[in-house]
Each structure stands twice: as structure tokens, then as C-alpha cells.
Amino acid sequence: MAKGSDASPLRVAVIGGGIGGLTAALSLRQAGFEVDVYEQAPELTQIGGGINMGPNAARILRRLGLAAGLDREGVRPLFTHQRRWDDGRTLQQAPLNPLCEELYGAPHITIHRADLLAVIAAGFPAERVHLGYRLAGLENEGGGAAAWFENGARITADVLVGADGIHSVVRAALFGEEAPRFAGCVAYRGLVPVERIADLALDTGNQSWVGPGAHLVHYPVSRGHLLNFVGWTEHDTWNREDWTDRATVERALAAFEGWHPQVRRIIAATDTCFIWALFDRDPLQHWSVGRTTLLGDACHPMYPFMGQGAAQAIEDGATLAACLGAIGDPAAALQLYERLRLPRVTRLQDMSRANKIRFHMRDGPAQEARDAEWGRAADRSPDALRWLYEFDAGMVEPAAPPQ
Ligand SMILES: Cc1cc2nc3c(=O)[nH]c(=O)nc-3n(C[C@H](O)[C@H](O)[C@H](O)COP(=O)(O)OP(=O)(O)OC[C@H]3O[C@@H](n4cnc5c(N)ncnc54)[C@H](O)[C@@H]3O)c2cc1C
After folding, report:
1. 219 is catalytic
2. Is residue 401 predicted with pLDDT exceeding 70?
3. Helix axes 19-30, 309-326, angle to 10 degrees
4. What is the C-alpha separation between 256 and 401, in angstroms, rounded?
5. Has this prediction a pTM greater than 0.90?
6. DSSP character at residue 210
7. Would the pLDDT of 244 be above 70?
8. Tell me, what's the pLDDT at 240?
9. Which of 40, 44, 148 to mutate to test the pocket of ligand 1 (most atoms within 8 A of CB)?
């Protein structure tokens, strides 16, 4: 195991207390390291609705001792169902639970973001989460890293982990400033109390509707009390990045004009609709410099069209802790960590980008070929995603080639 300079436990500073940063902090603490989290916000919050979490991530969180919280707050969707935008025809459907648990030892879960963050935070000592610490700069020093914050505080650590999201200050300090690109998509999202749409008689499942230039996903969260929906539409330009921006329900309905009555009924049933623009970065070649590395959206933001952004941040933490636990030299452990993680997240970044095209096809020969392909073999089924769901990011064998 990697040790600090005087053979005491390695001191790790995690910048960012989002889903990725807190999971990494918990994984590292349980591996025996001394961990502190520095979060810019005055309290731990997650803005937004739901997270669709595959068994690859649920397994890691359960191993961290969070099973009871996940079972309490999460929902286990019975199936995933992909449908056509106008007539609602089924394009593919596959069972999710209990099949995922049978095949991969962990369920597929849908959960509200705030609930997920609270479940993870409950496993980590609150006094080691430093709120109101907005990172301003950092430098690698011989045996570690130093960081300073806008509140005037300065810290040192043996290892520094940038889990500070798509606008990462750590990433900019290591690899230079580069603004993220608008990905040509915005999301309308909302939460609907399920009793308002009881007449739709929705089963506990995950449905997505695909159509020309848009798609909409909905699934239950908040112990089944709320239905989360996210409807993506294509746009040429965008000038705001804040996904708390308000959109009107009318505007969302206009974006899904002509879509199936179920889609429009769900949108119309929300009290508040938010709009969020999708931004993107090219994959990095490296994540680590000396004793500093990156994790989650800070190094591999991805379109949410494989539902794997948070899951991959969760996996990062498990692999990082395993690498630092397996190798004595922290800088070498960080190199191994990025070598193990890069091919897998790059593959998912590419697949998520490709799904933007596949989900948004105009009706015509290409769409018909896609529908026929999905009809032959459901590519969202737990069987088809074996390579993704079976993978255990906490199992590190330095010599094994990553998937
Ligand atoms: C609409 C939508 C739907 C999605 N659906 C899914 C899904 O179904 N499944 C899935 O797995 N993923 C999904 N994702 C992706 C997922 O939300 C992200 O990949 C994930 O939240 C990234 O986590 P993170 O911890 O790396 O970054 P973030 O969640 O962005 O957390 C970064 C943290 O760092 C803090 N921070 C930032 N700058 C500083 C600083 N300078 N100093 C200190 N702290 C700082 C922030 O306040 C924040 O708390 C979705 C994304 C969107 C937008």
C-alpha cells in the first residue's frame, strides 16, 4: 500500500464533493487512507432529477456498505423499454430486475440524485468534508501536492484528486484551460408525482422514446413517488450552461409537438420544468501529473446516452483506491489507475456520442434499418451489456488488459 512520507497513512485530498468525489473519498478511506474532501458549495447538493444506475456501479456502492440506503431510496425497474416517438410502437424491450442481480450480483437502480448523494455522504465522516472550499490553484511538490482556495485556506496532501466536474480547475491546472464545447443538445427535465399520472398505469420500468432530432427518457425515483423525465432536443447554439435554468412546461411541450400522448401527458403533469445544455470535451490522453490525478466528469465527461457518467465516476474511485492500495509508489499507482480506466471510459464516451445519432434519426431508411436491428437483438438488455455490467472496477490486476 502507498504510504505518506513518514510511513503514516497516505493523506489524500479530494477536490469536489459530487457523486464521483464522495464515492472516491469513501473508497479511499475504506482502503486505509486519510481522506479529506473540499467542496465549493456551502452544503452538499445535487441539482437535477434522476440517475439510472447499472449493476457495475450499484455493486461498488453496495460493497462500500451502502446497500441499505440504496434499497431504501432507490427503485428497481423491472424492464427497459424503447419506443417509437409517435405511435408508441415497441422497438426493444428487455428485463432489468431481478435479472441484473442474478447475472451480475447487483441490481439496476433508478434514484434521485440528491438521495444518492445523501446515501453516499452518510458513509463518510461529515467532519472530513470541508464545505465552502472553492479551489483556486494547486501545484505538485516533490512528495505531494499543495492546493489553495478562494477562502484563503491552503492545504498539502500526499495525493490530490480532482473530482471537480466538467469545469474542473484541477484539469485546467494540469493540462491547460480549454472551454467545453456545446454538444448541440438541450434537455427539458422535470419530476411528476405519480398519482397525477395514475391513469397512464405505468409499470415500474425505464422507458425511452426515440424520434426525429429528439428523445425522451422517464423512470421512477424517490422510492417510486416521483417520475423523472428528461427530454433531449437538438439545437444549433446555446449560451447558458446552468442546468437550473427554468424552462416553461409550454416550451417543453412545444419541443415535443406531435409526440405520443403519453410523452406529452407526462411533460404536462410537471409543476416545474428545467432546461439544461449538454457540453462535451474530447477524451484526454492522460489524467495524472505526479501526485495529482482526475476523476469523473473532470476527465471524461460523456453524453448521458448510455446512462454511465455517474457510474463511471463511481468506478474511477474504486479503481483509484485499489491501485493506491496495491502499489507502494503513489505516482506509479496513479499511472496504473489512468491506464486501467482510460480505454473503458473512452469506449463509453464514443458509444454515448454514437447514441445521439442513433436515437435522433429522422424517419426513413436509416431509421428503419435501426429499428430492424433493435428488433433482432435488444442492445440495451443486460445480456447485451455484459461487458459493461459484469466488469468489477475494484478488482485490479496490474498485468490484466482493461476492457
Ligand atoms: C440530464 C443528465 C442525465 C444524466 N443521467 C445519468 C444517468 O442516468 N446515469 C449516470 O450514470 N450518469 C448520468 N449523468 C451523468 C452524471 O450526472 C455525471 O457524469 C456525474 O454527476 C459526474 O459526477 P462528478 O462527481 O464527476 O461531477 P459533478 O457531479 O459535477 O461534481 C463536481 C463537484 O465538484 C464541485 N466543484 C466544482 N468546482 C470546484 C472547485 N473549484 N472547488 C471545489 N469544488 C468544486 C461541484 O460543486 C460539485 O459538487 C447524467 C447527466 C445529465 C446532465
Report:
1. yes
2. no
3. 30
4. 44
5. yes
6. E
7. no
8. 58
9. 40
Nearest atom in ligand 1 to the alpha carbon of residue 44 is: 49
Residue of 19, 120, 138, 344 best suited for mutating to test ligand 1, as the one with most atoms within 8 Å of CB: 19
pLDDT tens for residues 14-28? 999 999 999 999 999
Lining ligand 1 with CB less than 6 A are 15-21, 38-41, 51-52, 133-135, 163-165, 169, 187, 189, 230, 276, 296-298, 304, 307-311, 313
According to the model, what pLDDT value does residue 398 have? 60
CA distance 207 to 396: 35
Question: How large is the angle between the packed helices 19-30 and 113-122, nearest 10 degrees?
Answer: 20
The residue contributing the CA closest to ligand 1 atom 49 is 18
In the reported structure, the alpha carbon of residue 48 is separated from the centroid of ligand 1 by a whole-number distance in angstroms of 10
Q: Please enumerate in sequence order all residues whose Cβ is within 8 A of that of 34, keeping only pairs 6 or more positions apart, or say none.
A: 4, 8, 9, 10, 11, 12
Q: Which of 167, 297, 352 to mutate to test the pocket of ligand 1 (most atoms within 8 A of CB)?
A: 297
* Neighbouring C-beta atoms of residue 11, cutoff 10 Å: 18
Smallest CA separation from ligand 1 atom 4, residue: 304
| Structure confidence by residue, pLDDT tens digits, 58-91 | 999 999 999 999 999 999 999 999 999 999 999 9
Q: What b/e readout covers 340-353, taking b as 16+ CB neighbours within 10 angstroms?
A: bbbebbbbbbebbe
The C-alpha atoms of residue 376 and residue 62 are separated, in whole angstroms, by 34
CA of 85 to the centre of ligand 1 (A): 29
Spell out a b/e string for 110-121, using b for 16 or more CB atoms within 10 Å of the CB, else e: bbbbbbbbebbb
Question: Among residues 104, 133, 188, 219, which one is catalytic?
Answer: 219
Q: Which residue has the higher pLDDT, 119 or 402?
A: 119
> Is the pLDDT reported for residue 280 higher than 80?
yes
Helical H segments across 126-192, by residue range = 169-175
Sign of CA dihedral 394, 398, 400, 403: positive
Hey, how many other C-beta atoms are within 10 angstroms of the C-beta on 4? 18
Residue 382: its pLDDT value, please? 87
For ligand 1, atom 21, name the residue with the nearest CA.
Answer: 310
Mean pLDDT for the stretch of residues 236-243 = 60
